[in-house]
Amino acid sequence: MQQQADANVKRFMYVNRKAPYGTIYALESLEVVLIGAAFDQDVSLAFIDDGVFQLLKDQDTNAIGVKNFSPAFKALGDYDVNKLFVEKESLDERGLTPDDLMELTWEDEDDDWEEKPSIHLVSRHEMKTLLGNQDVILSF
Amino acid sequence: MSILHTVNKSPFQKNDLKSCLNHTNAGDAVLLIEDGVYGALSGTEFSLLTSNCDANIYCLKGDLAARGIESDKVSDDVKLVDYEGFVDLVTQHDAVNAWL
Predict the structure, then answer these.
(1) How confident is the model at residue A82 (pLDDT cuts 50, 70, 90)?
(2) Is residue A52 part of a domain?
(3) Which site among B7, B8, B10 would you substitute to test the A interface, given the most A Cβ atoms closer than 10 Å to its Cβ?
(4) Do the bridges between strand A114-117 and strand A105-108 make them parallel or antiparallel, or are there none, so unpaired?
(5) Which residues, in sequence order, are bridge partners of residue A43?
(6) Pair B35, A17: CB distance under 8 Å
(7) Would A122 be classed as within a structural domain?
(8) Which of B47, B69, B82 shows the shortest C-beta gap to A56?
(9) Predicted confidence band at A138 (pLDDT cuts at 50, 70, 90)?
């Protein structure tokens, strides 16, 4: 199936550089990712600059009257969206560590449904390479 | 004359916080709201700026909670306020300057 479809499969990368809630970009990006997941493409997400704030755990929006959309990231694994690349330098600059991020996993059907982490910490240099290897880049 | 300054943009993306902190006088207050609350994070290039500022720095609790920032991640020199505290700050100062 994968091999047959290869010619029609493109590498899509969604680049997230905005914090959640202050603007609509983060939510819109997630919506587009979920829609795009229906098309069986090779999808990955990049979190650079303020985009890393989208993945912080324990978000509680009760006081600001806005929907907390962070739980939706946990659904991505079920849509075979399991490559979330987080730039280490962006975390460092913001006083954050990978422990501050949500635990996002997916189940690998080719490996007895083993739960595997979806978040991959990459250096700025590795991110540069990833960006250079895409067919389509959608930036938010 | 004392001024309440509000900053609502992430300091990592816009220079509003930096510029605001460069234009405060003693007795002023700076309140971080919306994406401005990221300026309250400790261990960043901005935590030095806020601690060296002669104005009092405040941060809105609800906006921190929404973004998943626990109080232990906030710089010691930043005081947390709720919406009532926001109103108090408005009444305690002569004017408000929103850095948009």
Answers:
(1) very high
(2) yes
(3) B10
(4) antiparallel
(5) A12
(6) no
(7) yes
(8) B69
(9) very high
Is residue A41 situated within a structural domain?
Answer: yes
User: Band of the pLDDT at A1, cuts 50, 70, 90?
Assistant: very low
Which of B7, B35, B45, B76 is the best residue to mutate to test the A interface, defined by the most A CB atoms within 10 Å of its own CB?
A: B35
What percent of chain B is helix, strand and coil (3-state, nearest 5)? 40, 25, 35
- Please report, for the domain that includes residue A49, its CATH number: 3.40.1260.10
Which chain A residues are closer than 8 Å to B67 by Cβ?
19-21, 53, 56, 59
Contact between A10 and A41 (Cβ < 8 Å): yes
- pTM, 2 dp: 0.92
User: Would the CA dihedral through A121, A51, B15, B93 be positive or negative?
Assistant: negative
On the 0-12 / 13-18 / 19+ scale of CB atoms within 10 A, A113 is: exposed
pLDDT at position B66 is 98
Report pLDDT digits (tens) over B59-100. Answer: 999 999 999 999 999 999 999 999 999 999 999 999 999 999
Please count the structural domains in chain A. Answer: 1
Element (H, E) at A91: helix A88-93
**What domain range includes position A58?**
11-139
Looking at residue A53, its amino acid is F
The residue of chain A with its CA nearest to that of B42 is: A95
CA-based radius of gyration for chain B: 12
Residue A4 lies in a domain: no
